[in-house]
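ESCALATION

Customer reports they have been waiting on this structure for their group meeting. Please prioritize. Original submission:
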Amino acid sequence: MIFPNMVDLASITELANPPQNIIGSAIFLAYIVLALYGTINISGSIYSQYSSIAKLSKSKSKEKGKLKEKEKKRKGKEEEVQIAQSSAIQNARKRHVKIYAFLASISFATLSYHMLSFLIISYSAWAGKRKLSLNDITVDSLKAWMLNTSLFDSFAKELVHDGPSAAWTQGAILATYFWNIWMADKVQQRGYSLKTMFPYVMLSQILPISLTVSLFIVQLHLSAILESAKVPTSDGPQPTSAKKAYKKTNPTLPTIILNAALLALPPLRNHPVFIPLVLLTRIILLVPFSGRISSREQQVVQSISISAGFVFAQLFMMRSTTSLGEVVRGCWSGGEAVKALGWDAQLGALVHLVLSWGGGV
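Update from on-call: job pushed to the front of the queue and completed.
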């Protein structure tokens, strides 16, 4: 029986593939717009909070200058020590803010470069020209290019088109998953609201994780400084209302599902199930923010060990066709999509080193 209001799957399929790839183009453009929105939104909020702290520091300096010697003497030695310690902690946090902001800027710059390179290469291949000039790029040609190419599909397939690419992609996505668990744990500790976290969650889904986590750590430091100074600000994180406490579950199951999906992506890259499988990995990356995943160290370490096993399985399966050296060089010799994730994985490792070194929150 045919229903008159039934969705015509054939029409949808036609609109999701060249030469009328309206759906795919819309998704890809939406990714770019949302990524820019999230980055600008977070950066604006961070800048506003940092400005508030700068103004607060100036006002405190003026107050200190006006203190009389008698008032200084009246202060107990213990109180002065506490003030000195608090000031030292705040100064350290300000230094860390600058470090993580610098890392975030590097992440954004490398990501922008590789994404732009991916788009230029795609356009050049479609136009059949190795070198492009501004005269070759028009509104009509851009429209035709987007409709006649599968940008979203091509980007995803480039990430797993060979062994080294698949290995770097696997590592980058697993890093994103565990960074999300870490961020979700910090969110619960600080009691951040959904409104505060939405841009970060959105950005972690759209862009590689090093940018998001660097900005998030900056936010953690800024909110700690403002909280210690007891300065209310509408741009800072707002505490969430009391929520129903859910029983936390072990992250092992979603970890296994994510790893299995990542392991299946390379051999299924030309199968119709490929894109749904890609979307499944994105959904699993959201699971830590559900508030139901445990962040206990023992369980997280167990999940990391499981993931390491899957990574070794991936390397073992490609041993006959790909050497370890080729895997390592894949970050530099792969496509622009792979380079974007590869550099993100390295920057994410650098952020982790900074946290371990003493830039923790």
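Sent to customer with the following note: The first helix runs from residue 9 to 15.
Escalation resolved.
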